[in-house]
């Protein structure tokens, strides 16, 4: 018990160091953005990386001797917790940034961006007394809805990542919920790609997101076919 607690503490510490180093490494690239906006984007990016890493741990454990299985599960759970914390930080900062008068670079540079208030991320006409608020179904609106679905999923995973929650939900329901992880990753990939392609061209390029997503996918496909091969033998 004490050993597993110490192991989890180490995983959390390593995750924090990973987040701090990634922030430091990316900070220079985002120097042209106001600090809060830069932090928001970096947090979104870190969360994307962490969600991808959680998807790599399952395949990794399949390549390792079975005695590492429990350790891999524990690492995956704790990385997932940090993926959730960084995603929530990203969203909170986005909501703060959009809560007042427009002052973001993206608002100045993009005609499609909401003019004021975070509700404008999801709705148009919401300020008008005439007519109903309509869902924002432009490309950026779709990116926001994909982000919203992702963060709701991530929050559900975060709050059900304990043994107590697993017991409360029941094994198969818990598993069904947690199997949504690859789906969340795809949503986040599309969300990030839309933002990078349509508004936030700098400092990232599409290939930053796509290369990592492709690496995750290829490792998972190879591991899947290896499992099929082993089984057929
Ligand atoms: C799991 C949840 C989410 C993740 C992992 C995520 C990840 C990302 C990534 C990777 C970027 C690109 C950063 C860059 O340009 O370098 C981004 C940008 C952005 N996302 Fe998200 N996102 C999530 C949820 C949301 C939600 C719910 C919203 C609210 C509508 C949102 C709003 C934005 C905005 C406004 C940007 C543009 C850059 C900024 O100001 O941060 N995201 N996100």
From TrEMBL:
Chief subcellular location: membrane
Subcellular locations according to the entry: Membrane
UniProt-listed Pfam families: Ferric_reduct (PF01794)
Keyword vocabulary terms for this entry: Iron, Membrane, Transmembrane, Transmembrane helix, Transport
Ferric oxidoreductase domain mapped to chain residues: 43-188
Chain ranges passing through the membrane: 7-27, 39-58, 79-101, 137-159, 179-197, 209-229
Topology with respect to the bilayer: Multi-pass membrane protein
Record-linked InterPro entries: Fe3_Rdtase_TM_dom (IPR013130), MsrQ-like (IPR022837)
Keyword Coiled coil (UniProt): no
GO cellular component: plasma membrane
GO molecular function: FMN binding; heme binding; oxidoreductase activity, acting on diphenols and related substances as donors
Name of the featured protein: Ferric oxidoreductase domain-containing protein
Organism: Brevibacillus panacihumi
């Amino acid at each position: 018990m004490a050993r597993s607690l110490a192991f989890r503490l180490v995983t959390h510490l390593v995750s924090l160091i990973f987040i701090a180093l990634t922030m430091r490494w990316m900070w220079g690239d985002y120097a042209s953005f106001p600090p809060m906006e830069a932090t928001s984007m970096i947090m979104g990016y870190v969360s994307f990386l962490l969600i991808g890493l959680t998807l790599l741990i399952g395949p990794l454990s399949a390549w390792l001797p079975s005695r590492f299985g429990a350790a891999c599960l524990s690492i995956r759970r704790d990385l997932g917790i940090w993926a959730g914390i960084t995603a929530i930080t990203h969203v909170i900062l986005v909501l703060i940034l959009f809560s007042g008068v427009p002052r973001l670079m993206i608002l100045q540079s993009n005609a499609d961006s909401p003019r004021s208030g975070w509700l404008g991320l999801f709705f148009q006409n919401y300020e008008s007394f005439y007519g109903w608020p309509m869902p924002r179904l432009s490309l950026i609106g779709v990116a926001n809805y994909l982000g919203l679905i992702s963060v709701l999923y991530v929050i559900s995973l975060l709050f059900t990542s304990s043994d107590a929650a697993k017991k409360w939900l029941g094994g198969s329901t818990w598993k069904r919920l947690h199997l949504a992880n690859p789906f969340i990753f795809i949503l986040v990939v599309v969300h990030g790609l839309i933002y990078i392609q349509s508004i936030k061209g700098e400092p990232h390029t599409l290939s930053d997101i796509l290369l990592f997503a492709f690496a995750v996918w290829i490792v998972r496909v190879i591991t899947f076919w290896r499992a099929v091969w082993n089984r057929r033998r």
